[in-house]
């Protein structure tokens, strides 16, 4: 554990103004009054851990993160429970994935206990910003950036800044839960073997914007990424993992693409691999091609599809479009298996259902 210097904001928003903002916070647009920072320098390690008022970072124009994109981030949520306490869902899993990403980006690991300690400190300071409305949460964004000044590219940075900020948020997709439409990207590639596909670094997302713009131009909500070699095998939807439902009712089973180093190992994905069997739904990790997806929908074998991730939780996929045509899944409506999994997962996160795997960690 590391000792933090705590400096609280001199002025806090009045309760009435804060509640008005929390009534419709959007997603990632509103930020709380504090942040956590910890510095790392070569030879000294992690030091100068602080909780301080939220505000701008002062960085030299030659700071390495601006020029060589040595940075990465995580995303998780804090949830208000029925008893008023505040918890997070599997924060140690996020801490472990953070360090795996750090290894890939040649950045220093942060002890998992320190990662969670930083979340606890920030959430406790800004507990009044954790929404109480159904489906709302406090989105937590830990990130790390290279802060050494200089243009040299022969070695990774000798200085880093770890930071955590928090954003009260409504649902990722606004309005009632409805299936999204997706565009199959054959022109662009998200990741290739040996690359950074499994790491949660910003460059993966920056490179995805052009394909997402193309999806919107084609009348779709999101882009689906295919493999880099053949542009045939389904990998991810945007920044979320994909699941396919075969059969229905008691015969339903789940299939999801295997982790190959090009897909992000999602915490929600991993949770569903454990949760679905608890509900009597078999799960397997199998490669699925675009052709198989289309043909299995046409035959009725594949009945539902959904994407999952921290921000969107579980979002059904209703329409698939590509250069060769389009098809609709399950009549374009959310399927019963998707709805059941979402209800169970959200119920655990908000404290309305049992937590058999001890995934919930109290933060405040």
Automatic annotation (TrEMBL):
Class in the EC hierarchy, top level: transferase
One GO molecular-function entry: transaminase activity
Pathway: Amino-acid biosynthesis; L-leucine biosynthesis; L-leucine from 3-methyl-2-oxobutanoate: step 4/4; Amino-acid biosynthesis; L-valine biosynthesis; L-valine from pyruvate: step 4/4; Amino-acid biosynthesis; L-isoleucine biosynthesis; L-isoleucine from 2-oxobutanoate: step 4/4
Superkingdom of origin: Bacteria
Cofactor (UniProt): pyridoxal 5'-phosphate
Keyword terms of this UniProt record: Amino-acid biosynthesis, Aminotransferase, Branched-chain amino acid biosynthesis, Pyridoxal phosphate, Transferase
InterPro entries for the chain: Aminotrans_IV, Aminotrans_IV_CS, Aminotransferase-like, B_amino_transII, BCAT-like_C, BCAT-like_N, BCAT_family
Catalysed transformations (reactions): L-leucine + 2-oxoglutarate = 4-methyl-2-oxopentanoate + L-glutamate; L-valine + 2-oxoglutarate = 3-methyl-2-oxobutanoate + L-glutamate; L-isoleucine + 2-oxoglutarate = (S)-3-methyl-2-oxopentanoate + L-glutamate
Pfam families named in the record: Aminotran_4
Family according to the record: Belongs to the class-IV pyridoxal-phosphate-dependent aminotransferase family.
The protein's name in its UniProt record: Branched-chain-amino-acid aminotransferase
Organism: Actinocorallia longicatena
Record lineage: Bacteria, Bacillati, Actinomycetota, Actinomycetes, Streptosporangiales
